[in-house]
Amino acid sequence: MKISKNFKLYAIVWVILLALFNAIVFITPSDYNGESKFTDTFWIGYSLVTVGFIGQFLCAYVGLKDENITKVFYNIPLLRVSVIGLVVSAIAGSIFMALPTVESWIAALICLIVLAFVAIATIKASVAGDAVSAIDNKIKLQTFFIKSLTVDAQNLLARANTAETKDAVNKVYEAIRYSDPMSNDNLNEIENKISYEFKAFEMAVKNGDVAIINNQADELLILINNRNNKCKALK
């Protein structure tokens, strides 16, 4: 899979920040009041920050791996929560790293609570993003019929050779254009009829048969109106 440029740039920043964190940790003096700072509490805090970095990296991969800006938009809540989670983990972990004399069980308990909080918030953000994406995909499917038919009618205008033909095609185009865009299973029958009649209408326009064009246009306008009425009744 091709990795997006956004994620590649993010990965560079992530590596720099992780390297800086480790440099600060291991370059600073290792003694604390005459004792080594590398106690169990220190490593618990260090582990929390490291896990925070790894978790945020994974979330960023999910949120930024695609070039599609729409998919990135859906993942903004996940990205925001992951950054907040990293900040919270870094603060909590840094406190225990700076205070290695704190009881290790206290540090472990608080770090586990922080991890649980961040994990739950991340899962909720991910689920919310997936739900919005699913709704959007459903809407795209439900509006495909009218959008596709509108494009076909608009293209048909270019084939109209006479003023009378163009007027008939434009009436059909305007009727489709301003129709209710939402479809559902209950409209399948009438939408199939509209598709069938539109193909016949399209053929008549190509052949330049004015009488058939007008008849097909009238039939399409009736069917489109009936569909719109059914849409209203289904709401």
Written overview of the protein:
The chain is mostly helical and 235 residues long. It has helices at 5-27, 40-64, 69-74, 76-98, 104-157, 163-177, 188-207, 210-233, and strands spanning 31-32, 35-36. Helix content is 81%, strand content 2%. The chain has a two-stranded antiparallel ribbon with strand order 1-2. Helix 1 runs antiparallel to helix 2 and helix 2 runs parallel beside helix 5. The mean pLDDT is 85.
Main beta sheet: strand number and arrangement?
A: 2 strands, antiparallel
Q: For this entry, what is the oligomeric state of its chains?
A: single chain
Helix/strand order, N-terminal first: HEEHHHHHHH
Spatial ordering of strands, largest sheet: 1-2
Give the domain tally: 2
Q: How many beta strands in the DSSP annotation?
A: 2
Give the arrangement of secondary structure elements.
Elements: H1 5-27, E1 31-32, E2 35-36, H2 40-64, H3 69-74, H4 76-98, H5 104-157, H6 163-177, H7 188-207, H8 210-233
Antiparallel strand pairs: 1-2
Helix pairs in contact: 1-2, 2-4, 2-5, 4-5, 5-6, 5-7, 6-8, 7-8
Defining key terms:
single chain, 235 residues, mainly alpha, 2 domains, two-stranded antiparallel sheet, 2 strands, 2% strand
How would you summarize what this structure contains?
With 235 residues, the chain is mainly α.
